[in-house]
Amino acid sequence: MKKNLIIKRAEIAGINVTPIIDVALVLVIILLITAPVLSVSDLGVNLPRAQTRGVEENDRLSVTISSTGRISVDKEIVPREELVSAIGARLREPDKQNVLVVIRADEDIPYPRIMEILQQVQEAGAHHLAIATTQIGKERKWTSSY
């Protein structure tokens, strides 16, 4: 009688992690691609365009607020209480109804104070408003002789 030779294979004791790592990396790539798409709303919005060219001096009215709280309209210092009337008088001048009113405030002025000035400028009749900033990398200190 012949003996049947049965060869037993040794069972694998460990888990092959290569397929698990492959699946995990594919999921990470899918999440990285889809995450920016999910963060944008489905609402159709027409974003405003920014204009970076300089405005000529005669096409604007400048309201400057110093770090001490002093206010000037163009080169004339005005008391806080007379700001609306001073801007209103300037806007009533010929060819000044649609000028750009630029708010130049020191960086130490609190934001609520700037909002208050913006509201006063709107009360005076200004329709075009802007807030002056300094571009990063082109910082320069504005000096005045007031």
Give a topology summary:
Elements: H1 18-38, E1 60-65, E2 71-73, E3 76-78, H2 83-91, E4 100-105, H3 111-123, E5 128-131
Parallel strand pairs: 1-4, 4-5
Antiparallel strand pairs: 1-2, 2-3
Structure commentary:
- There is one protein chain.
- With 146 residues, the protein is α/β, with parallel strands linked by helices.
- It is 29% helix and 15% strand.
- It is built from three helices and five strands; from the N terminus they run H-E-E-E-H-E-H-E.
- Strands 3-2-1-4-5 form a five-stranded mixed β-sheet, with helices on one face.
- Strand 4, helix 3 (111-123) and strand 5 form a beta-alpha-beta unit.
- It is rod-shaped.
Give me some keywords for this one.
single chain; 146 residues; alpha/beta; Nucleotidyltransferase, domain 5; five-stranded mixed sheet; 5 strands
Q: What share of the residues lie within helices? A: 25-40%
- Span between termini: 120 Å
Query: What CATH first level of the domain at 57-131 would be assigned?
Result: Alpha Beta
Beta content comes to 15-25%
Structural class: alpha/beta
Q: What's the order of the H and E elements?
A: HEEEHEHE
How do the strands of the widest beta sheet line up side by side?
A: 3-2-1-4-5
Radius of gyration using CA atoms only:
33 Å
